[in-house]
Every structure is written in structure tokens, then in C-alpha cells.
Design goal:
By secondary structure, this protein is of the alpha/beta class. It contains 9 helices and 16 strands. The strands form 4 sheets. It has an 8-stranded mixed beta sheet with strand order 4-1-5-6-7-8-11-12, with helices on both faces. The structure holds aspartic acid.
Length: 351
């Protein structure tokens, strides 16, 4: 029986890091080693010899980075690399640090369309070389799942962590210490791993939308602004606003904002005057308004329900940021933004 072929793409993150223990200072530091494909292949053979029973794995090292140092340029590089190679494989496993994994998985879900192979992104909270590591189980299951295509639930960009397979553009990192590092608000897991891998019912999993792909170009002038009580809107100078292509505004949980402050209302009108799109997410992950009939429309959020403001619905902040940056990377026209924002590219959320 020939084993499935899986491409393991490595970018860095804790999974490949070395633990350095300084007993004098009582400190444990983790640093990114400069791994080559040969070194990583050797490491995997030593630590995970059982991988060879699941699949024939090829290893490519694209970079050795903490994921804090991965952004739009690397998302494009990853998408191009995967697309150049995926026809030769049954699936791809991408190893990535957890800190910005949700941004990369959102970006790849929007860039790799149609997604013809399973792309399973994983990482770990403890290095592969550590005792009590989650890297072993994450990597073994990710490879097994990547080998399970073509199957609707996995032929897409997914994230595997702590025995759960999630849709890649619906995850958020929620813990830096628990093995369950990710949650997926408003979107149930695609599979749960126990004694067997239990995939969700394929009849309820969504088809890939047919919306044509966008050019692989991101605006690097999208900012996230988190509102606070008494928000100092005057600090957002005209000079600052003139440099911004788009704003993700994090509002209070029930879709409200300090609209009693003239400075805040003036801030909104200055943004509007510049035709800069404002995408609204709430502190706790968004749902209002429209999509939920039960949402209360508070008067303190009225000014946010106006032209130029776009609710993220069930989209995560990470995906809203990536989608906004991608749309504004095409051009900066507000009308076009409005049309593209409403399009469903990769089941990224409901409005
Ligand atoms: N700082 C690390 C990273 O995101 C954390 C991790 O991998 O879990 O690359």
C-alpha cells in the first residue's frame, strides 16, 4: 500500500524552538534555532519515528521565525509556495507559531481559493524537544488529517490544536499556557480527535464559495483601534488619519461606543470625510447587528450603524483585519470596499 504524500512546511514558532534553562537565574528561555530542512527532517525522525507509518513526508523550511515576525509579505510567500507545490501532495501541514497563527490561517483561507488540498496548520505550546510536549500529538494528528483529503471538511485551510480541527479563518488564540490554545467562536470544530478522528457531518459543512480570488496584495495601512471609556479621539490627528487606508474599531460588547463625546462623533465624521472604511468588531467577538434577530440596538451605538461602518458579524477580529487589508490592497475605493466586504470568500463569517 502506498502511503499518502504530505508536505510539511516549517516557519518557526515554539514547536521547533529549543528550551534553554538558566538554573542560576531560574529562567527558561525559548529561542528560534536556525533549522534547515535536513536538520528538521532528522529531528522529526528522532522524535516522531511513527510519522513514517502515516505518510511519506517531505519537509520544506521557509523561515525560522517567532510568528510575531510574520506578516502580509510572508502570507503571500506561503500562499505562493503552497500553490506551486500542492499538486504533488495529498495534503500540506504548516508549522507555525501560535501568536499570529490566526492571522496567517485567515490570510491563507482568503488567498488559496479554490483550496484543492487539505492545508492543516498547527504548532505547539511546548517545543517538540521538551518533555510533556503537545507538539507530538498536534503534529501526528495534523499529518493524519492532511492525508484524509479529498473530503469536504478538510479540503480547506484548517487549524489543528489540542485534538480539535477548526476552520482556519474562525480561530482566535485564547491561551499562552493551556494546550487548548485556540477557540473558534460561532463555528463548531470540523473534527474532534479521540480514539478515532470524528469528522463533523459533511452535509452540514459548507461548500467552498465560488467568489473569484483577489490579487495577492495587502494594504499595510489598516489599523486596529480599541475603544475605551472616555476614548481620547482628539489624539487621532488628521495627519494620522490621512495615512490610514482602513480602521478596525473594537467597540464595547453590545455594539456601543462613547457616542456621548463630541470628540468621538467628530472623529467618526472626520473618518467618513476621508472615505476610510471602518470595520466594527466587539471586544468579545461580534454578532450584532442584522445576523441575530435578538440583538438589541442600543442608542449608544446608533452612530456606528451608518454608511462607511461595516459590521464584522461572526468574523473574528483577526480575519476582519486580514480581509480588510486584502480588499484595500486591491484599491481604496469605498464603494468597491462595500461590495467586496459583503462577499463570502471562504465562509469567513455571517453578517
Ligand atoms: N511566540 C511563539 C510564536 O508565536 C509562541 C508559539 O509558538 O506558541 O512564534
Amino acid at each position: 500500500m502506498t502511503l499518502p504524500k504530505i508536505l510539511i512546511l516549517y516557519t518557526g514558532g515554539t514547536i521547533g524552538m529549543d528550551l534553554q534553562i538558566n538554573s542560576k537565574k531560574g529562567e527558561v528561555t525559548v529561542a528560534v534555532p536556525q533549522l534547515s530542512a535536513q536538520m528538521l527532517t532528522k529531528k522529526l525522525r528522532q522524535r516522531l519515528p511513527e510519522l513514517t507509518r502515516i505518510a511519506q513526508c517531505d519537509v520544506d523550511v521557509l523561515m525560522n521565525r517567532d510568528s510575531a515576525h510574520i506578516g502580509p509579505d510572508e502570507w503571500i510567500l506561503l500562499a505562493n509556495h503552497i500553490q506551486r507545490k500542492w499538486r504533488n501532495y495529498d495534503g500540506v501541514v504548516l508549522l507555525h507559531g501560535t501568536d499570529t497563527l490566526a492571522y496567517t490561517s485567515s490570510a491563507l483561507s482568503l488567498l488559496l481559493r479554490p483550496c484543492i488540498k487539505p492545508i492543516v496548520i498547527t504548532g505547539a505550546q511546548r517545543p517538540l524537544s521538551a518533555l510533556r510536549t503537545d507538539a507530538r500529538m498536534n503534529l501526528i494528528s495534523a499529518v493524519e488529517i492532511a492525508a484524509h483529503g479529498p473530503r469536504k471538511q478538510v479540503n480547506q485551510v484548517c487549524v489543528f490544536f489540542d485534538n480539535k480541527l477548526f476552520q482556519g479563518n474562525r480561530v482566535r488564540k485564547e491561551s499562552a499556557s493551556d494546550f487548548a490554545a485556540f477557540k473558534s467562536p460561532y463555528c463548531p470544530p470540523l473534527a474532534v480527535v479521540g480514539t478515532t478522528i470524528r469528522y463533523s457531518d459533511s452535509r452540514i459543512s459548507q461548500d467552498q464559495p465560488k467568489t473569484p480570488p483577489l490579487t495577492r496584495r495587502f494594504s499595510n495601512k489598516v489599523v486596529v483601534i480599541h475603544l475605551t471609556p472616555g476614548f481620547p479621539a482628539d489624539c487621532m490627528s488628521d495627519e494620522f488619519l490621512s495615512q490610514v487606508d482602513g480602521i478596525i474599531l473594537v467597540v464595547f460588547l453590545s455594539g456601543t461606543a462613547p457616542t456621548h463625546l463630541d470628540s468621538f462623533l467628530f472623529f467618526l465624521s472626520r473618518i467618513k470625510g476621508r472615505k476610510v472604511p471602518v470595520v466594527l468588531v466587539t471586544e468579545g467577538g461580534t454578532l450584532l447587528p442584522g445576523s441575530s434577530g435578538s440583538a438589541l440596538h442600543y442608542a449608544a451605538g446608533k452612530e456606528l450603524r451608518s454608511a462607511g461602518c461595516f459590521w464584522a458579524g461572526t468574523m473574528t477580529l483577526e480575519c476582519a483585519f486580514v480581509k480588510t487589508s486584502l480588499i484595500l490592497g486591491q484599491n481604496r475605493d469605498l464603494k468597491q470596499f462595500s461590495t467586496l466586504w459583503r462577499k463570502n470568500f471562504a465562509n469567513e463569517g455571517d453578517f
